[in-house]
Amino acid sequence: MKILLILFLAFTFPALAGGKNERTVFFSADKIVKLDITVDEAGMQVLRETKHSWFERSPGQGANSLPEKPYVKGTVVEDGTVVHRNVGVRLRGGMGSWQKIDEKPGLFLNMDKFEKSQRFHGMEKVILHNSHQDPRYMNELLTGEVYRAAGVPAARVVHAVVSLNGRQLGLYYLKEGYDAGFLNEHFGNDNGYMYQGDTGQDINAALEITRGEESPHTPKDHSDLKLLMAALNEIDPKKRFERASLILDVNRFMKYLAASVVLGVVDAYPIVGNNYRIYFDTRIGKLVFFPSGVDRCDFGGVQLEQNFALVASRLIETPDGRAQYLAAVDQVLAHAYDPKTLVERIDSLRRMLNPVLKECHPVQHQSWDVNFWIRDAIQKQPAKVTEMLRHSRGK
């Protein structure tokens, strides 16, 4: 009887038997998924009227002054066979990637918005990124692999060819959303709350709460961020580091900062206060920063010491923070950033994407090869960062 029960559990719940869940299996290999999205005319009109908070607000309005981007119902057909009905579809994108619905829009698919318990390979939320700022169509995938190897939560990526109502939109990133599955995988819980940081919004801005609005843990007045700011404004360096460590997971933040610098992610939070999420991890009772939207990366150009965003700059001004930061850079170089592996990944992705890009975006394909100077930059980066480390420690 016990053997029968074990076999039943193994086939019914593979994760319990040491197997991988559906989400992990989906992202376990490079692929290009075909997604055909259909939205009725009433829904298309709603999407055409959707405004972006940065570009279409009235003079004097704040960045968060517009209502949330509305969802409409859509049907998503995967690879011509699997049909997902009543999917929530809305526009997405920041200042650099925003496109209107009749262009090449970024899209957000909420699988259970209208159909509870519906999932796309185990995901509640799916991001379709138009890669408007990444002509290589691989920065988000490559940087995510390095971030995760460094111990920083980062979304997994495959690729998709997307159509909308029969119109070919072209090649996209297909990225997992920051839903319960993502949070449980990286934090071991999903009952915390999450802030979203957009262009130029540091922690002293009115950050939007995008998850856990009704959670008992969620402060309604950003009091946690105010507490962190007060800690960072502490004059005494030792007390500053100690106070910040009570609120912030400093260890993971330094890994995030170090990986961003080594990768040369020019619009990450630690560098310029952009494209990030902050999750309150209920398991440890602290805030955790992680990247969101890592499409602008040149594997160079970011200095080890520069004018960073608030949390990074105030922490590395302290002796303890500076030592932890430099040690994190060492760890990223030793265990997360492998030039040989990265170049091999680029070459493999390039072979896979080349025919698709040629078919979907023939004009862009004509100059695509120019973008792969990064192969050389990736291989030179460890020596450059090591020299910066030597110089910093010699001060």
Give a quick precis of the structure.
The chain is α+β, with helices and mostly antiparallel strands. The protein is built from 14 helices and 11 strands. The strands form 2 sheets. The chain has a 7-stranded mixed β-barrel. It has a 4-stranded antiparallel β-sheet with strand order 9-8-10-11.
Overview of this structure, please?
Helix 6 packs antiparallel against helix 7 (237-247), helix 8 crosses helix 11 and helix 12 runs antiparallel to helix 14 (374-393). With 395 residues, the chain is an alpha+beta fold. The chain is globular and about 60 Å long. It has helices at 2-12, 22-26, 41-48, 139-149, 180-187, 223-232, 237-247, 250-263, 269-272, 310-316, 319-335, 339-360, 362-366, 374-393; strands at residues 32-39, 72-78, 82-92, 106-110, 125-129, 157-164, 167-176, 194-197, 208-211, 276-281, 286-291. A seven-stranded mixed β-barrel has the order 1-2-3-4-5-7-6. It has a four-stranded antiparallel β-sheet with strand order 9-8-10-11. Mean pLDDT is 90; it is low at 1-19 and 57-66. The chain contains 14 helices and eleven strands. The chain folds into two domains: 2-181, no CATH class; 189-336 and 384-393.
